[in-house]
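Appendix B, record 7
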Amino acid sequence: MATYDSEQQEQLDRIKHFWKQYGNLITWVLVLVLGAYASWTGYLYWQQQRAAAAGGLFEELDRAASAGQVDQVRQAFADLKGQYGGTTFSEQGALLAARVAADAGKQDDARAALQWLVDSGKNDSLVAVGRLRLAGVMLDAKEYDNAIKLLSAKMPAEFGALAADRRGDVLQAQGKTAEAIAAYRQAWDEMDPSVEYRRLIEGKLTALGQAPQPRPGAAS
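Structure tokens (predicted):
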């Protein structure tokens, strides 16, 4: 029994010594780990609440757009990008607000919404759509060099054909027919043959006397 008590005391002494030597370190590590976990959980909750609020504001914008309420759309988008910039809802809102403004003949508002998306957007696909539409606005304003520069930025591969097509439109407007044909041809080659828009590109090439034919080895 005495031996057992002695061994038990030795174990207690070792534990006390270990805790005396490393206790503070262990305590701080636990504090940091638990604090990080609490912060991450709180961040996720904040993100969920923020997304829900942004979604509600986007619905408000969408309803105003469907009703043709231009001023309400402008205000809803201003609130959306001001309070929830960086969310997908705000980027979708930019595209919707730009369309409503353009339909109402308010090109400056449309351009501002698209420029905000291009400058501040985080979703590569939505930013690419914004670039294409903004390039169209610049084309209408005869800002050809700015449009070409905008279209030269890196975009997701699936937007390459559309960017080439829009570049062809700008080059054609500049009177650079040979370069426009090359851009349209690139767009036609890269676009999936099953996509109906490819026929429009084909029409542009045909109008320029360059009706496209599949290149050897290319899919028809």
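Remarks on this record: Residues 94 and 116 are 8 Å apart (CA to CA). The chain has nine helices and no strands.
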